[in-house]
Fold each of these.
Amino acid sequence: MFADLARDDVFRLETPRLWLRWPRAADAAAIERYSSLWEVARNTSRIPHPYPPGSAERFIFAAREGNASGRDLTLVVTTLKAPREAIGAISLETRGGDRLALGYAFSPDVWGKGFASEAAAAIVGAGFTLTTATAIHASAIVENEASKRVLEKVGFAFVDRGLEGAPARGAMRECDRFVLARERWLQGRATIAKLSNGASAPRPALRP
């Protein structure tokens, strides 16, 4: 689904404070460090707890395979000041022929700094720019108010509440579900451009 530009491991997204890039073997220690924390794992459906040895390496391998195939786009997030230290990961996964699903996890060390919203806005822009997806879907467990605020800040609209599978938790969990349609995203970009006196809406740099 993703254009060839995103299928090469030199692909980057840049925001005012962040780099989003392909994961690599050297990221395993940082990914394991935050993924092994219960406060991170409990808000996800896939990160097991305790975090088994080798899980970070398997995540990196699967992410790179998905990126290379063009099926998904999974990127680690770093700050511009420390581009070698992963502070989180964010992904868009194909759901059918015309939809994507957004997911992310960040180290508690950077919670509350707006990094998740900044990274989500960047990858959402890439998703609509580099694919023909008509909508991006996302969900958050009902108790995860911080994640729901991230989605709302990026432009997602609440759809409904229902049970969703959580393989790593071994049970269904009640989640709030959100969607961002391409038309809504385009309208948001147009509004930003209008407020900027006709200048082009800001967008992350796509670095080949």
Amino acid sequence: MKPFIDLKEQYRNIKEEILTCINQILESSHYILGENVRQFEDEVKSYLGVEHAIGVASGTDALHLALRALDIGEGDEVITTPFTFFATVEAILYVGAKPVFVDIEDKTYNIDSSKIEEKITSHTKAILPVHIFGCPADMKKINQIAQKYGLRVIEDAAQAFGAKIENKRVGSFGDIGCFSFYPSKNLGCFGDGGMIVTNDSEVAEKIKVLRNHGSKGRYIHEKVGLNSRLDEIQAGVLRIKLRHIEHYNEQRRRKAALYTKLLNEYVITPKEPENTHHVYHLYSIRSSYRDEIKETLLRHGIPSVVYYPVPMHLQKAVSFLGYREGDFPRAEAVSREILSLPIYPELPDEEVYEISQMIIRCLQKNF
């Protein structure tokens, strides 16, 4: 079986840099909130064009802490998408708020900004768009709605590090941007890690306190916080990978363009909205023959993954919200047809051709 994402190849290419960095950290014996965390936060600020960046333990914690920093809690509502990873919804539930879903766009699979206003109530406090698969959501319209109704905006950019709308990077559009550095992400560490970015100094200070047990000074606790600090070794790894992120993302875009060229006549391929820069964390096709394609690839040792087979509103864990099948037909349709193909910077072009030809032959048998 070939890998869905080959992290070993990426490691081999930067192995000496990584080992040197880790050895320096081990020699320093400074493992928590050390110099690499501080420098990585500064480098992310510069890269994204934001005033504050705070490293945390995971992308899930980033979302959770973002909501807490904006004082969102019991009785509040947060508008988001039903087509996302469960962490988006978990974070809203962690603070006692209610996720309110809005169906997705048919082409980008992002939240449909034209349907947001109809879901706003007196309890709505924030909009939480997700830049799904690395494709930027419609932040211009979302920000306009938020400004009109006095709402906060939290961007779930876990899958979209480096994505842009015009020349501005995602994560920098809302009140807060949240990133995940899970190993398979475009910018991934060697374990769990996350980042919160903002231009609001007050919010940034709240998050710094909350991520460190609610403490500003040693053993002095102003709030009940979390133990959610980005690890020093992971920060060191991420600093090295950040130097390569533009190359990694461009390689993903190149592989995606090749897939699209080969498959566009046979399946629904990803769409890139005008003036956006998609970074293809995942390359996801749609077909009513999804299961046949998946089985064909598997027989030839090619993995593929369904992201996401059950949309959030139909998950058993949130059945208490009262949603039913048919409530969000676009998200449900996409979940039945979506299939993600292998894509990573080091993926050989010949494998893109091979995978595409397998899909085409499978579909020709079924047409």
Amino acid sequence: MHTKVVYTCDVRNVTLSAEARVLERARELARKRSTTLNRMFREWLADLTSDRLRRDRYEELMRRLDGARSGGPFTRDQMNAR
């Protein structure tokens, strides 16, 4: 069974190399998940870059807040006051 895929964005091909044993295990995993190795790779790239983007944004925020001070320390009652 073949599925046609229509991309709505700019898609580029990449060439990778891997040990035959590792590649076969990855293909078997893809079969078990009812997907393709190509799709798993695209999802991995998306996860990798989104994690890095979140980390980069967090680190930038921490740099910007470096001089911010809360005015504490606070007592338990002060922290729970409404």
